[in-house]
Amino acid sequence: MKKDKIIFWIATIIIALFEGVMPALFSQTELAKEGIRHLGYPEYFAMTLVIFKILGVLTLIIPQVPKRVKEWAYAGFAFNFIFATISHGAVDGINGKTFFPLVIFGILAVSYIYYHKLTSNKN
């Protein structure tokens, strides 16, 4: 049980850093704005993503949030990583940037699997 908790929290904290803290701190930089334009998205889309990423991270890390809401947060992040992979692949071709979202998706999957291990042990 303790090992499961450690694995869950390490994976979830990595997601929180990549999807909550970094976007909140760096989304308004010129580099970030150029990145979103490069992919063909309008700037307002980037701000929408940041807001939902922060809400998603809060949903994942606050224990009192209902399970059903957490499931939607996990699904939202999964869609985000899949579509980020597609966007990078469509615009830049197949390279390292194309597959990086799938690496984070893998970490999200670890968080999700261990979240369910922990909640099934409580019942």
The tally of beta strands, per DSSP, is: 0
Helices and strands, in N-to-C order? HHHHH
- Tally of individual domains: 1
Give the integer mean of the pLDDT values. 92
Which radius of gyration do the C-alpha atoms yield?
A: 15 Å
Give a description of the structure.
It is globular, with a radius of gyration of 15 Å. Helices cover 86% and strands 0% of the residues. The relative contact order is 0.15. With 123 residues, the chain is mainly α. The protein starts with a helix and ends with a helix. It has one domain. The protein contains 5 helices and no strands.
Features:
123 residues; mainly alpha; 86% helix; globular
Write the layout of secondary structure elements.
Blueprint lengths: L1 H25 L3 H9 L4 H19 L5 H26 L3 H27 L1
Helix pairs in contact: 1-3, 1-5, 3-4, 4-5
Short description, anyone?
The chain is 86% helix and 0% strand. The protein has 123 residues and is mostly helical.
